[in-house]
Amino acid sequence: MVIDPQAIFASPDSAWGSPFFSDAFANIRRLADAAGDRVLVTRWLPTADRGTSWGDYFAEWPFADRPADDALFDLVPEARGLSGWPTLDLPTFGKWGGELERIVGRDSRVVLTGVSTDCCVISTALAGADAGARITVAADACAGSTAENHAAALHVMGLYPPQLTVADTEACLALLR
What is the spatial distance between Cα 45 and Cα 67, in angstroms, rounded to a whole number? Predict the structure, then answer.
């Protein structure tokens, strides 16, 4: 699973762009190639509901308060074609929920990659593990907002074995075989 490989999180011109995205993406590509037709890509899209805490969120981050079809939310060019599945578009940080479970199964084994380690990846990983999936986060195939936040998120996720484990790309490649 490739979490949110979008311009908003990859571009150095974006307030949310991770400076580590291109390094992580090299490993994302290796894992996607090994997973073949089992790859699923997600996108974060803004919700239209401003009556919830998302209204407060967009007041704090007005640059991201754009229509869902804005180019800022497009997949980066190198992520297009990673999956034969339609992109799972959700207006939530965490992507784990009923729609994803219908695709991968509730008790599945999932390798997570993507951005941002300290937001959408950790939100997806914890919810998936809590729902009963076996989650492995490929640490070097994830990009955080900062090196410190990436490390902190990996530390927190490392507290949840055996439902949630943190590994490197090489270990995850072995899981995908």
Answer: 9
The pLDDT-based confidence of 82 (bands split at 50, 70, 90) is very high
- As a whole number of angstroms, the distance between CA 95 and CA 170 comes to 24
Relative to beta strand 109-115, strand 134-143 is parallel
Residue that is written with structure tokens 């209204």 in the block: 55
Cα first-last separation, the chain: 15
Q: How far is 130 from 168, CA to CA, in rounded Å?
A: 22
Closest CA to 164 of 174, 150, 153, 173: 153
The tokens 């190639």 sit on which residue?
33
Report pLDDT digits (tens) over 72-81: 999 999 999 9
Q: Which of 108, 149, 154 is nearest to 129 (CA)?
A: 108
Q: DSSP states of 119-147 as a string?
A: IIIHHHHHHHHHHT-EEEEEEEEEE-SSH
Angstrom distance (rounded) from CA 5 to CA 26: 12
Q: What is the dihedral of CA 81, 82, 88, 89, to 10 degrees?
A: -60
Token representation of residue 177: 């075989």
Task: List, for residues 113-165, the tens digit of each pLDDT value.
Answer: 999 999 999 999 999 999 999 999 999 999 999 999 999 999 999 999 999 99
On whether the CB atoms of residues 125 and 99 are closer than 8 A, the answer is: no
